[in-house]
């Protein structure tokens, strides 16, 4: 069959890998200038490695992507480290994941007991709930509860308001109290203290996969956004781009659900309504290349407090502070100390319209709360990346809201981040979703 795949991110590339390996004629259409989608990276002229536009890492439990890397012969280029994840507090940063005893579980116990702002009984309760959630057999049953309500009752008001509610607000903004508990369970059960990356950065992995895919006969067309997918009389589809139209027997789209509704207007109204009803948050990453370390305690990922969904009352105007070079050696990046100021936002938030200099003006003053000595003169260079579709929002009973991978138009398939639920966004589940959709397509 001649198969068109819309999107050359991790899902599209994984699907194309299986489809082309099975002997099908595959063409990938990618709107961007490089493969990778949301996992794509960029490279400054002084760096040896690429840096992800939006911070990424793998867990040891991410067997779909790690298995694919082994299949294509690059397992020896995967690297795992144990960086420090901390919680910001006016007194100091409190580690949540810090390898102190050579054992992840014992280290976690020590870190939880060290959360001195919480009374001891709340620390014990918080740690016990986290441990029990990892043992919970099937979290999908929890989707009838909101994470905000369930966690408040489970860990207590103090621990919830100090740790979990700020993270929910930071990630989902005004929708934080509608996110279901199954999503939170999935985050907890898959998380590991050791975090993985690929030698050369995620972009190096994605390009290695793309090379295998094209070596199997597939074609990748970069800078080629698809504009329309229309059914062809007698079966198949026309895939229209700015430079013309291509006929395909089958089409697999890895775009956002709302973009899919626009690309394929022939879809039945009820399916399009299902696509358009799904909610998601956009992502923003302001990246700083500094001439010195920002978080001297070695923290890689600093969870920041959030009490107001509109950020007006929060001590930081963004969600997370990630010092990438406290995780990976800065020698890979020409000696730069690389810091992300990251956030998830509604797609209509003003941050999506502000220019980089305006965001720098808003973000930089808060960095003195982390390091009082910080000065803007530390900045050698900065970059700004934004994506309007980045984080699906899973509501109560989300499993009943998900559109089928097989759309009502025979031969047209959708494999989006929204459908990996209850698992969270990331390359691991993008790979799983892409390969699952490819199997369905070939079975059909």
Task: Describe the fold and architecture.
It is a single chain. The chain is of the alpha/beta class. The chain has a domain of 160 residues: FAD/NAD(P)-binding domain. It contains 12 helices and 20 strands. A 7-stranded mixed beta sheet has the order 8-7-16-17-18-15-19. The protein has a 5-stranded parallel beta sheet with strand order 10-2-1-14-20, with helices on one face. The model has no long low-confidence stretch (mean pLDDT 94).
Keywords:
444 residues; alpha/beta; FAD/NAD(P)-binding domain; seven-stranded mixed β-sheet; five-stranded parallel β-sheet; 20 strands; 31% helix; globular
Number of strands: 20
Provide the CATH superfamily of the domain at 2-41 and 201-278 and 402-443: FAD/NAD(P)-binding domain
Radius of gyration: 22 Å
CATH architecture of the domain at 2-41 and 201-278 and 402-443: 3-Layer(bba) Sandwich
Largest sheet composition? 7 strands, mixed
CATH top level assignment of the domain at 2-41 and 201-278 and 402-443 = Alpha Beta
How much helix, percentage-wise, in residues?
A: 25-40%
Continuous helix count: 12
List the helices and strands and how they pair.
Blueprint: E1 2-6, H1 10-21, E2 25-29, E3 41-42, E4 51-52, E5 58-59, H2 63-71, E6 78-81, E7 84-87, E8 94-97, H3 104-113, H4 120-135, H5 147-155, H6 157-172, H7 181-190, E9 195-198, H8 202-215, E10 219-221, E11 226-231, E12 237-241, E13 244-248, E14 250-253, H9 257-263, H10 269-277, E15 279-290, E16 299-303, E17 320-323, E18 337-345, H11 356-363, E19 379-393, E20 412-414, H12 427-443
Parallel strand pairs: 1-2, 1-14, 2-10, 7-16, 14-20
Antiparallel strand pairs: 3-4, 5-9, 6-9, 7-8, 11-12, 12-13, 15-18, 15-19, 16-17, 17-18
């Amino acid at each position: 069959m001649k198969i068109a795949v819309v999107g050359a991110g991790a899902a599209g590339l994984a699907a194309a890998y299986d489809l082309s390996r099975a002997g099908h004629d595959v063409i990938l259409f990618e709107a961007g200038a490089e493969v990778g989608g949301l996992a794509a990276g960029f490279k400054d002229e002084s760096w040896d490695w690429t840096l992800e536009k939006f911070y990424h890492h793998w867990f040891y439990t991410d067997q779909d992507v790690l298995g694919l890397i082994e299949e294509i012969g690059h397992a020896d280029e995967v690297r795992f480290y144990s960086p420090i994840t901390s919680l910001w507090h006016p007194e100091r940063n409190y580690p949540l994941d810090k390898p102190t005893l050579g054992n992840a579980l014992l280290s976690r116990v020590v870190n939880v007991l060290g959360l001195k702002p919480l009374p001891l009984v709340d620390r014990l309760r918080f740690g016990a709930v986290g441990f029990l959630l990892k043992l919970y057999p099937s979290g999908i049953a929890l989707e009838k509860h909101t994470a905000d309500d369930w966690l408040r009752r489970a860990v207590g008001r103090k621990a919830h308001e100090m740790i979990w509610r700020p993270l929910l607000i930071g990630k989902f903004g005004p929708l934080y109290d509608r996110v279901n508990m199954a999503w939170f369970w999935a985050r907890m059960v898959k998380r590991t203290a050791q975090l993985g990356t690929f030698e050369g950065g995620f972009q190096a992995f994605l390009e290695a996969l793309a090379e295998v895919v094209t070596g199997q006969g597939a074609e990748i067309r970069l800078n080629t956004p698809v504009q329309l997918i229309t059914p062809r009389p007698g079966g198949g589809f026309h895939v229209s781009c700015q430079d013309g139209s291509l006929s395909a027997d089958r089409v697999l789209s890895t775009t956002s659900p709302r973009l899919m509704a626009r690309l394929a207007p022939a879809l039945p109204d009820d399916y399009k309504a299902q696509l358009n009803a799904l909610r998601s948050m956009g992502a923003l990453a302001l990246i700083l290349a500094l001439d010195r370390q920002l978080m001297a305690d070695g923290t890689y990922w600093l969870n920041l407090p959030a009490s107001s969904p509109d950020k007006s009352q929060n001590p930081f105007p963004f969600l997370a502070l990630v010092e990438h070079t406290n995780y990976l050696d800065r020698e890979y990046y020409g000696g730069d100390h690389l810091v992300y100021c990251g956030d998830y936002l509604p797609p209509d938030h003003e941050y999506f319209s502000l220019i980089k200099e305006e965001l720098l003006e808003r973000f930089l003053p808060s960095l003195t709360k982390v390091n009082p000595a910080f000065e803007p003169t530390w900045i050698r260079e900065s970059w700004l990346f934004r994506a309007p579709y980045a984080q699906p929002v899973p509501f109560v009973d989300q499993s009943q809201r998900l559109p089928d991978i097989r759309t009502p138009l025979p031969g047209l398939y959708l494999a989006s981040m929204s459908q990996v639920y209850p698992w969270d966004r990331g390359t691991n589940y993008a790979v799983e979703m892409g390969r699952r959709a490819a199997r369905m397509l070939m079975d059909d």
